[in-house]
């Protein structure tokens, strides 16, 4: 088997990818400077489902405002969500906030052992391994989208990578191949190879240090692996929001602590069959695509007085800059209110 050499000699695999990373990998990312457990945790949660180039300015702003775990634990929800707005997948911000409070108030310090890291709210197997690898330079297997793609091609693994059976195989490989110590550069090598060489499309196989042992490359199956997940039709949902001004202020409502845009401020939302929409003027519409459905939003201006909904508050233009708003809502407000005289 083409890959048996790496399976029987994991040290060869580690040496190969580490040597490559030293000269061709990414070594100047902001979270790589002073890789404390806190900085690693923040960066890893930001990087979930988000490109590195997008994360960099958010990470830098976050660290200016909340430079350590104690500052985050003491911060209020609005501060946290305002720093996160625009990154999407806001559950990550809530999990990060919960994690900081748990570490400070329950543990007293950042844990070192994998099992202890896994007790932290919002910290899964990958993030725990990343903290061990990058912050402590210790044994910490990692499997994310980049590593899944790399391993599936290298070892010719069939099946959807996120399926239970394939996921189990990939983690077993990570356990086998990960060095027991001095793991920081090895872990970075896996992520760099997946992100910059073994890319989803237009993989740069000729530059890959693993190409002589890669089953997909040597059998012409790079485009076939990993196995694609069957596509599902994205449903469309309607959303109706109220535009209510009072002088120089706009009425906003705090979203529930679960569901889309949880804990963010937004325009008050009403059901499409509510009477208020029968006496309202359509101000505009926009679309926004979530991971699981497409939102078709309509903004309505009531033509008669409206009782302030529970959890609502008035904000002027300056105050709007200091709170967390969903990106599409903020964009609409900026275009139709903030940027108008």
UniProtKB/TrEMBL annotation:
Gene this protein is translated from: mutY
GO BP terms, alphabetized: base-excision repair; mismatch repair
Role noted for this protein: Adenine glycosylase active on G-A mispairs. MutY also corrects error-prone DNA synthesis past GO lesions which are due to the oxidatively damaged form of guanine: 7,8-dihydro-8-oxoguanine (8-oxo-dGTP).
Swiss-Prot/TrEMBL cofactor(s): [4Fe-4S] cluster
Protein name (database record): Adenine DNA glycosylase
NCBIfam families: mutY
Annotated Pfam families: HHH (PF00633), HhH-GPD (PF00730), NUDIX_4 (PF14815)
Keywords: 4Fe-4S, DNA damage, DNA repair, Glycosidase, Hydrolase, Iron, Iron-sulfur, Metal-binding
GO molecular function: 4 iron, 4 sulfur cluster binding; 8-oxo-7,8-dihydroguanine DNA N-glycosylase activity; adenine/guanine mispair binding; metal ion binding; oxidized purine DNA binding; purine-specific mismatch base pair DNA N-glycosylase activity
Top-level taxonomic group: Bacteria
Lineage, top ranks: Bacteria, Pseudomonadati, Pseudomonadota, Gammaproteobacteria, Chromatiales
Cofactor binding summary note: Binds 1 [4Fe-4S] cluster.
């Amino acid at each position: 088997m083409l890959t048996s050499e790496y399976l029987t000699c994991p040290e060869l695999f580690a040496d190969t990818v580490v040597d490559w990373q030293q000269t061709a990998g990414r070594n100047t990312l902001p979270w790589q400077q002073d890789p404390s457990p806190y900085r690693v945790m923040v960066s890893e949660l930001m990087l979930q489902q988000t490109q590195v180039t997008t994360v960099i300015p958010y990470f830098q702003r976050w660290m200016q405002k909340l430079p350590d775990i104690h500052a985050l634990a003491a911060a209020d929800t609005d501060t946290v969500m305002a720093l996160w707005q625009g990154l999407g997948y806001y559950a990550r911000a809530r999990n990060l906030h919960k994690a900081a409070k748990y570490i400070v108030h329950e543990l007293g310090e950042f844990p070192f052992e994998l099992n202890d890291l896994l007790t932290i709210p919002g910290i899964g197997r990958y993030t725990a391994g990343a903290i061990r690898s990058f912050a402590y330079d210790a044994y910490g297997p990692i499997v994310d989208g980049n590593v899944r793609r790399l391993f599936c091609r290298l070892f010719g693994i069939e099946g959807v990578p996120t399926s239970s059976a394939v996921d189990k195989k990939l983690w077993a490989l990570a356990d086998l191949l990960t060095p027991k110590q001095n793991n920081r550069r090895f872990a970075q090598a896996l992520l760099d190879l997946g992100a910059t060489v073994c890319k989803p499309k237009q993989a740069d196989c000729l530059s890959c240090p693993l190409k002589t042992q890669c089953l997909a490359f040597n059998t012409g199956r790079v485009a076939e692996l990993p196995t694609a997940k069957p596509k599902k039709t994205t449903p469309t949902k309607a959303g109706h929001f109220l535009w209510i001004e009072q002088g120089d202020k706009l009425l906003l409502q705090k979203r529930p602590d679960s569901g889309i845009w949880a804990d963010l401020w937004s325009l008050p939302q009403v059901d499409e069959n509510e009477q208020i929409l029968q006496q309202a003027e359509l101000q505009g519409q926009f679309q926004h695509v979530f991971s699981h459905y497409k939102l078709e939003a309509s903004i309505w201006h009531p033509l008669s007085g409206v009782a302030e909904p529970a959890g609502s508050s008035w904000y002027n233009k300056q105050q709007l800059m200091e709170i967390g708003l969903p990106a599409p809502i903020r964009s609409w407000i900026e275009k139709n209110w903030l940027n108008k005289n």
